[in-house]
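Example 3.2
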Amino acid sequence: MVVFALLCEPGLAEAPYREIAATSGASLGSVQGAMAELERDGFVLVRGGRRRSLQRTRELVDRWVAAFTLELYPRLVLGRFDATRSDWWQSADASLDREHGLWGGETAAHRLGLDLKPSRVLVYAPELPRALILEHRLRRAADDGDIEFRRLVWAFSLPGGLVAPSPTGVRRPDRLRGPAPRRSGPRVERGR
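Structure, written as tokens:
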């Protein structure tokens, strides 16, 4: 999660390792190893002995997306559910907030003002949000389901309230799994 934190907050590369560890939720040893690898591979540039900056971020995003999809994603899934109403999530902010969850994927994009109607709801939470599931009468899915709950594994937040942090390129892993979103209005350009 060190790379994810750096991609979300590029200025964090300049911070002491303890701050990177606290922000990313990784151990100090993991931060040291990740930063050494990023420096070796040319993604972190060290100037003046201590001043660090993130480099080649598009390439790093591509590398992170590949690792997320193949390695991290399968370990994050808490459960898949179906809803009786397709718009249940539009009235679930308070429930989600009580369970310390965040909207992800196309639902997050909609919450940020993009004119999208999510085809699948993605929620990040520290654990399966049982109260939200009961309140909105969600039921376990027999297959991929309409709703996917994933473990929230980062320790930082960005502006946006209940929306998961996702720098432009990092939104892609959520779109790699599942159907394309349905536009509910004019075409929306997506950044790379």
